[in-house]
Amino acid sequence: MSASAADWGSASEIPDLAGAVAIAGVGEADHSQASGRSAREISAQAAERAIADAGLTPRDVDGILYSAGFGDAFDARAFHQHFGTSHEIWESPRGGATVQAATAPAAAAEALRAGKARHLLNSFAVSWATQRSQMVGGPGQFHAEERYKASLELPFGWFPQPVYFATIARRHMIEFGTRPEQLGSIAVSARRHANLHPGAVMREKKLSLADYLARPMLVDPLRVEDCCLISDGGGAYLMTAPERARDLRRPAVTVAGVGEGRSGTGLYWSQQRDFCATPQVFSAPAAFAMAGIRPGDVDVLALYDPFTIVSLMQIEDMGFCAKGEGGPFVEGSALDFDGGRLPLNTHGGLLSHAYVLGISHVIELVRQLRGEAAAQVPGAEIGVYGGYTGHMASTLVLRRA
Amino acid sequence: MKDPDFPLPDTTWEGTRGFWEAAAREQLAIPRCAACGRFQWYPRERCRACGGAELPWTVVSGRGTLFSWAVVRRALVPAFASKLPFVTGLVALAEDPAVRVVTNLVDCEPEALRAELPVRAVFRPLVFPNLTRSVMAPLFTPAT
To answer: Which of A48, A210, B55, B97 has minimal CB crowding within 10 Å?
Structure first.
């Protein structure tokens, strides 16, 4: 039933940028439930904090990366409006979160190499919790408006994302014997990490495996606890050349590898040949090769985790275990920061930290590699982020400088 | 979600009109390449396998196997609240299991569903509260 990896997707060509970019500053906005703030206001707060973290001023920022796919982006114009600046800024829409939280450094490497910018800020924010209370926007809207989905999926209630991923989780259970308590261990570990993280939306809410199993099904086989939060929040990270980063105030973290993969069936998840896989099968090997590492070298992992099953599939697809063995691999405390075999989403992830679409995943990895995370993995030297949007995946390898 | 008939399909849209016209006749139809004979799902202007541009809607048996499914127990979309719980999932067609049709499983307890269960199409109108229009659609039930 499973197709070979080669025939349902592909890896993107990304020029080697190992060691060409460093992350010198990170900043998170306040993460919350509905706050009434706009995404642009949230981005501005994250930007202020990232710039201050790097020991720079807004005038030093001469490169801006934002997301092309989201409105209300924090582009150069918004930057100037917020900071009252007017200097020349190079900008690119190849930034933001999700997949681009990993690939923005590739765009930054080009700008650095061409001398177009020296200090580049990548930011992302959403105000989906505020928007949801107003019944506009949010993660489902795009899919509801896509015409084939609107005609062939929505009329049957195969919508929105929890339904897609419940169907994928069921098939994973069918093919590989994956069990609910294995998905639950991913949710429980994420919550435990969020309980330790000062900025996490679920900081005060505990979750045990027994709690998880006692919770009702939302879309069987998924419970609410298998699904990400809907949040207002955002983050930013500041990139520069490694030699420049050494002069700045914080310990630098170097970009060692970047990868990107895509599915040949695009956003039509119902038709993806290898139904229980993610394009990490194309992305991760490319990023690991660029960085010269193997999965076993990774000290701390951060995966885009809209649903527990998406973490499980990416763990398999990135080569941390064989395909189908993700369930047994994640059991118990395997993903915990303190002694787990593969510490995952040590800030709580999209499941329990905040649904800011991966930007905080990268920020958390930087903090881990600086040795200043709330749930610190002792001696972490290599951190990996796996981004995902369904039809695409990306991989970012970070190394302590 | 601006369509006033949401979540009913626009049965006149060219991209999927053949599917809904066949359903109105209580048939299941899938585009099939006239050149190489392969089914093409979802519909595309050209055959993914051979590039053929002629892809007539072709009636199939309506038989298949249950590939995977989800039991929706809470209303994620208000329009479906009156249907809870309901089963939505993917049926792999007998003629080509790579063709997965999104559908509802009906006349069957969710607990009785299992992987690769043989199923057959039955045709029922999709009806939603507050909508006067309804659309005949291929749903699936265990084959006997």
So the answer is: A210
Q: With beta carbons under 8 A apart, name residues in chain B contacting A271.
A: 41-42, 100
Residue with tokens 């949801």: A132
Q: How many structural domains is chain B composed of? A: 1
Asked whether the ipTM of the predicted complex exceeds the cut of 0.95, the reply is yes
Axis crossing angle, helix A100-113 with helix A359-370, rounded to the nearest 10? 70
Q: What is the pTM of this model?
A: 0.96
Mind giving me the DSSP string for A277-339?
Answer: --THHHHHHHHHHHHT--GGG-SEEEE--SBHHHHHHHHHHTTSS-TT-HHHHH-TTTT-TTT
CB neighbours of A48 closer than 8 A, spacing ≥ 6? A27
Determine, yes or no, domain membership for B99: yes
Q: What structural domains does chain A harbor?
A: 1-17+140-227+256-396 (3.40.47.10), 22-133+231-245 (3.40.47.10)
The answer to whether the beta carbons of residues A164 and A218 sit under 8 Å apart is: no
Question: Of residues B144 and B26, which shows the higher confidence score?
Answer: B26
Q: Is residue B6 part of a domain?
A: no
Report residue A28 as tokens.
Answer: 């998170």
- Is there a domain that residue B95 lies in? yes
Cβ proximity of A362 and A46 under 8 Å: no
- CA torsion through residues A17, A19, A25, A31, sign: positive
Instruction: Decide if A121 contacts A63 (C-beta within 8 A).
Output: yes
- Tokens 């929040």 belong to residue: A233
* A152 touching B (Cβ < 8 Å): yes
- The pLDDT of residue A6 is 52
* Range of the structural domain that residue B106 is part of: 17-142
Decide if A162 touches B, using CB distance below 8 A: yes
Binary contact (A154, B9; C-beta < 8 A): yes
Residue of A nearest to B90 (CA): A270
For chain B, say whether A270 makes contact (Cβ under 8 Å).
Answer: yes
